[in-house]
Amino acid sequence: MKKYIINSNDAGQRVDKFIQKAAPKLPQSAMYKGIRTKNIKLNRKRCEISTRLSEGDVLELYLPDEFFEEDDSGEKYEFLKAPKDISVIYEDENILLMDKKNGLVVHEDNEGTVDTLVNRMQHYLYAKGEYDPADENSFTPSLCNRLDRNTGGIVIAAKNAESLRILNQKIKDRELEKKYLCIVVGVPPKRSETMTAFLFKDSKSNTVTVSDKKTDRNKTIVTKYRVLKTDGKLSLVEVELLTGRTHQIRAHMAYIGCPLLGDGKYGSNKVNRSYGIKTQALYSYKLKFAFTTDGGLLEYLNGREFTVPMVWFEDMFLEK
Question: How far apart (Å, rounded) are the C-alpha atoms in residues 127 and 131?
């Protein structure tokens, strides 16, 4: 038998969703049978899979202990195998803003990489005494947005379930404004513009193609840019995504004849070699909380803007 006392991070979840997180070894068929046969009870009463949990509820699973045994082999927690080094831009009791460096993956990839931003973040909070999996039934501090391995910049982490719920909804509703810095080869045709085109993603090759014609296979992209400075050969450009598609900045800028410096997929390796750069000059450097609806627990962040203090390529390549 296993007993769970529902805490604030568990509250609001459906019974079945909570059990799937809290007891991942329990097969769904056994869970559904347990609820049907009253071997899973909420506050000593029968419950339904759709019943919402409240803080202080007691959920009891009268099922074999083998479904709840912990794996004692190896490291106690996987995230402890990663360094706890992160670059903090802002932190409070609810959220953490980190400056992810180029080359670091945010989540575990197909190669099983342990040194990920999410593992570093959890190790960092564990070392501070703010997170211990032993104290949680179903919640883990989580990242709310992601960046490609070779793109640096601001990544948001939620320290509790309510913050995670709010941030996920705000991101979905586009109530957060993110701006990127990049260096492009050449000079864009206008000093500033909001561009619309259409993007097709080839999942097999992990590449995208941009076109000015709509088809039933491509999706609309809208990219806003502003040239900050240029020496005629390279330009420092600020970009805002009004849609969020795979490789949108890289492919859209390349489509107008100004690929990102260091981008071997959509740019020129010959040009990249001439500047001695092996990674794309692209950084998510500015974040603004721009809520148009109630921010709940995070309303105090509304209107606040955060900027990465130093972007590695900002002053490196343009001629003085």
Answer: 8
**Do the bridges between strand 152-158 and strand 192-202 make them parallel or antiparallel, or are there none, so unpaired?**
unpaired
Instruction: Give the residue carrying structure tokens 């092996």.
Output: 278
- Strand, coil or helix: what is 317? coil
261-267: long-range contacts, CB 8 A cutoff, minimum separation 24: 261/182, 261/183, 261/184, 261/185, 261/234, 261/313, 261/317, 262/183, 265/207, 267/185
First to last CA, the chain: 70
Query: Please, how many CA atoms are within 13 Å of residue 127, restricted to the half-sphere of its CB?
Result: 14
Tens of pLDDT, residues 280-298: 999 999 999 999 999 999 9
- Say how far apart CA 149 and CA 11 lie, in whole Å: 34
In the beta sheet, which residues pair with residue 58?
5
Strands 142-143 and 152-158: antiparallel
Condensed to tens digits (0 to 9), the pLDDT of residues 83-112 reads 999 999 999 999 999 999 999 999 987 777
* CB-CB contact of 98 with 89 (8 Å): yes
CB 198 within 8 A of CB 204: no
Instruction: Report how far apart, in Å, the C-alpha atoms of 301 and of each of 90, 228, 233 are.
Output: 11, 28, 40
DSSP track, 213-242? S--SS-EEEEEEEEEEEE-SSEEEEEEEES
Question: What whole-number distance in Å separates Cα of residue 296 and Cα of residue 103?
Answer: 35
d(C-alpha 316, C-alpha 320), whole Å: 10
Full-model pTM: 0.89
The C-alpha atoms of residue 12 and residue 160 are separated, in whole angstroms, by 13
